[in-house]
């Protein structure tokens, strides 16, 4: 896929799927580098030494092999110029902040329910609202075959646009903060007439309606919606 199409796809829909991105050699390398550090999602063993702090911690723990593996993973990222791609998608300078690995057992059930990562609950505890411009891009590499019903990431197209604008409204104190981590809470918030009117000042009504139609298919019709 051409780079321009990847950038446009992510900017419009919030994601881009590239099948068989890893060649055989890169796939074997990634599998080898992550073999001993892959546990269930949320375990810190799967995190690599990116910043100086984490590097010092791993040096103290004499985790030299993991430091070396971090170097190889960074080299892999540079090989495909992910930073430049991120810069073009977000239209700003970006930097690598995290590399982690984890596995999920093959299952038709979700690892996590439908949710919004940017609901800011942790920041509310310290009375600090995160600037919605401080966004990030995640690159997922599946090292075994995954399909829509057994492990791959699910995403509602265009939801990133709505969530960012909602975050801006909270950040600028135009609306009060409410916890909207779950898709149910997020959808209910967007459907509120006062919130909907504020969103419509900046967003195309088609973007909002498309999100609500897709979320209703998931929440009301209980469908395993594939986009």
Structure at a glance:
With 227 residues, this protein is an all-alpha fold.
Task: Give a topology summary.
Blueprint: H1 3-13, H2 24-34, E1 39-40, H3 52-60, H4 64-79, H5 82-90, E2 102-103, H6 121-125, H7 159-171, H8 183-191, H9 193-200, H10 205-219
Parallel strand pairs: 1-2
Helix pairs in contact: 1-5, 2-4, 8-10
Key features of this structure:
227 residues; mainly alpha; two-stranded parallel sheet
Question: Mind explaining what this structure looks like?
Answer:
This protein is 47% helix and 2% strand. It is mainly alpha-helical. It has 2 domains: 82 residues, no CATH class; 120 residues, no CATH class. The mean pLDDT is 85.
What portion of residues belong to β-strands? under 5%
Estimate the helix proportion, in percent: 40-55%
Can you summarize the main beta sheet? 2 strands, parallel
Q: Can you count the helices? A: 10
The largest sheet has its strands arranged as 1-2
Question: How many E strands?
Answer: 2
* Order of secondary-structure elements: HHEHHHEHHHHH
Give the C-alpha Rg. Answer: 19 Å
Mean pLDDT: 85
Uncertain stretches: none
Domains (count): 2
Give the overall shape. globular
The class by helix and strand makeup works out as mainly alpha
CA(first)-CA(last) distance? 19 Å
């Amino acid at each position: 896929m051409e780079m321009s199409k990847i950038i446009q796809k992510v900017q419009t829909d919030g994601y881009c799927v590239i099948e068989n991105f890893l060649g055989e050699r890169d796939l074997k390398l990634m599998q080898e580098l992550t073999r001993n550090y892959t546990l269930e999602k949320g375990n810190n063993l799967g995190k690599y030494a990116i910043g100086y702090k984490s590097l010092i911690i791993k040096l103290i723990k004499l985790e030299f092999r993991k430091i070396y593996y971090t170097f190889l993973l960074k080299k892999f990222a540079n090989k495909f110029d992910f930073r430049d791609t991120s810069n073009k998608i977000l239209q700003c300078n970006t930097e690598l902040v995290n590399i982690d690995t984890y596995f999920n057992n093959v299952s038709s059930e979700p690892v996590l329910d439908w949710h919004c990562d940017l609901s800011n609950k942790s920041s509310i505890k310290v009375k600090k609202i995160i600037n919605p411009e401080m966004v990030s891009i995640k690159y997922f590499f599946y090292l075994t075959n995954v399909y829509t019903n057994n492990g791959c990431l699910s995403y509602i197209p265009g939801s990133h646009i709505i969530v960012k604008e909602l975050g801006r409204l909270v950040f600028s104190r135009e609306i009060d903060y409410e916890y909207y981590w779950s898709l149910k809470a997020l959808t209910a918030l967007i459907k509120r007439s006062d919130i909907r009117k504020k969103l419509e000042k900046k967003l195309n009504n088609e973007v909002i309606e498309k999100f609500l139609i897709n979320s209703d298919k998931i929440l009301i019709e209980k469908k395993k919606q594939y986009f």
